[in-house]
From TrEMBL:
Topological relation to the membrane, as annotated: Multi-pass membrane protein
Gene Ontology CC annotation, any one: plasma membrane
Pfam families: HAMP, HATPase_c, HisKA, RisS_PPD
Reactions catalysed according to its record: ATP + protein L-histidine = ADP + protein N-phospho-L-histidine
Record keywords, A-Z: ATP-binding, Cell inner membrane, Cell membrane, Kinase, Membrane, Nucleotide-binding, Phosphoprotein, Transferase, Transmembrane, Transmembrane helix, Two-component regulatory system
The protein's name in its UniProt record: histidine kinase
Entry's transmembrane regions: 15-36, 161-183
Gene3D superfamilies: 1.10.287.130, Histidine kinase-like ATPase, C-terminal domain, Sensor histidine kinase RisS, periplasmic domain
Protein localization: Cell inner membrane
CDD domains, sorted: HAMP (cd06225), HATPase (cd00075), HisKA (cd00082)
Length: 453
């Protein structure tokens, strides 16, 4: 049952269906109210019309029988029965009479018929087991029953009215669907464009047509996108230029350190500082690189993670505990995914040191996860360090932001997790970071699994 309700999630979340069902409910309620009022208001005039017809039929039939020759009456009765649907029976005291149902229509028409035929007029819905609409009348001292088909009393407009109502309702619902689509399409395009921007992509310009509000909104969004593209381009150029210009003096400094007459400890310390500066510049370049133009292919992410783990053994005092499910594939860029995992491992080496121990323990897991009938991948990295203060978790994914330096007294650019976040978004994934209940910092990545072609 839960799976069925999850399958109907679109009924609650989609603006198109919300608008359509709201209009459909409003139109249906209006149609029902209109039909109820119509049936109520048309009962009196229809009862008057039908009562006048029945009075005329009884009056004419009585006059025809009273003035016809005795030998012609049988032929007259046959003609009335076959041509007019009027049957005449003698009224007997032994007749089994069933009173008609007291419907609003009968209660409205019976006084009118008695007024035209006499107060002694009787009505019945069945005489001696024969159904119909029966009216009594007298010719001198003889008493008769006149029988009409019950269909004459049924509202002839009922089925026709119902057919027109159904047709009108169908056309109205069709119009409601069209109106809902016209309302939803511009918002849907805007939502898709905003979602593309959130993933680091550049959506095509929105069409500047339609109502004034839609045109102004799309124009504002297109202008915003142009500004963002220009800012992103300027930022990339500035960062790349600064990083490139900084590497030239760094290379000279590294050469001078090699050639200088220094002690081994001084030379090693200076080389470490220069290498750290070079790593920071590399992160600037990685962050400045645009991700919306990278090409995706089907990649065995299990093998990629295993390669990164094998390379990570170069780090001293790093112990890796892995649980990687084999043969898991995603659509992605091999270079960016390697950069993603390398940044996480390097971040753990910098900040994930266990208090009181020289060994850094990093747990790495990769497995399939099925949620709402969708194939997904969950990748997690957990160190066993001191974690991150809760107030810092929200801002860790921002560029140039680092956690509390007291975790490891390490320095960095603050771009590691920002680069990770950008790469994951460009691959349509989700990132979650939190502190483990038993200690340590946890990074969880959710990606969509690629099915076989």
């Amino acid at each position: 049952m839960r799976d069925y309700l999850n399958g109907l999630e679109w009924l609650k979340s989609g603006l198109f269906w919300r608008t359509f069902f709201m209009l459909a409910a409003l139109v249906t309620a209006s149609m029902i109210a209109w039909m109820s009022n119509f049936r109520t208001l048309e009962t009196t005039p229809r009862a008057q019309q039908l009562a006048a017809q029945i009075v005329s039929i009884v009056t004419i039939t009585r006059a025809a029988l009273a003035h016809s020759a005795p030998e012609k009456r049988q032929e007259l009765l046959r003609d009335l029965a076959t041509k007019e649907g009027v049957q005449i029976y003698l009224l007997e005291d032994s007749d089994r009479v069933e009173e008609p149902e007291l419907t609003p229509f009968f209660l409205e028409s019976s006084p009118l018929m008695k007024k035209g035929l006499g107060n002694n007029t009787r009505f019945a819905s069945q005489i001696n087991g024969i159904s119909g609409f029966w009216i009594s009348f007298d010719i001198e001292d003889d008493h008769y029953w006149l029988r009409l088909e019950q269909s004459r009393l049924d509202p002839p407009i009922g089925q026709q009215l119902l057919s027109w109502a159904v047709l009108t309702l169908f056309l109205t619902l069709l119009g409601a669907a069209i109106i809902s689509k016209l309302i939803n399409d511009p918002l849907s395009r805007l939502s898709n464009a905003a979602r593309a921007v959130a993933k680091g992509k550049q959506p095509p310009p929105l069409p500047q047509k339609g109502p004034k509000e839609i045109r102004e909104t799309n124009l504002s969004f297109n202008s915003m996108m142009e500004d963002l593209v220009r800012i992103e381009s300027d930022r990339s150029i500035i960062l790349a230029g600064i990083s490139h210009d900084l590497r030239t003096p760094l290379a000279r400094m590294q050469l001078e350190v090699e050639m200088a007459n220094l002690s081994d400890d001084a030379r090693t310390g200076m080389q470490s500082d220069l290498q750290q500066m070079d790593d920071i510049i590399s992160q600037f370049l990685d962050y400045a690189k645009p991700l919306d133009k990278v090409e995706f292919e089907r990649i065995n992410i299990s093998e990629v993670m295993q390669q990164v783990i094998d390379e990570a053994f170069r780090f001293q005092n790093l112990r890796l505990r892995t649980a990687i499910t084999p043969d898991i594939h995603v659509n992605g860029n091999l270079t960016e995914l390697k950069r993603l995992f390398n940044n996480i491992v390097e971040n753990a080496c910098r900040y994930g040191k266990t208090s009181g121990s020289p060994v850094i323990t990093l747990d790495v897991q990769c497995s399939r996860k099925n949620k709402d009938r969708k194939l997904g991948i969950q990748i997690s990295f957990r160190d066993h360090g001191l974690g991150v203060p809760e107030q810092d978790l929200v801002r860790l994914l921002r560029p140039f932001t680092r956690g509390d330096a007291s975790r490891s007294q390490a320095n960095g650019s603050g771009l590691g997790l920002a680069i990770v976040d950008r790469i994951i978004k460009s691959h349509g994934g989700k990132l979650r970071i939190y502190n483990h209940a038993e200690g340590g910092f946890v990074i969880v990545i959710a990606l969509q699994e690629s099915k076989e072609a």
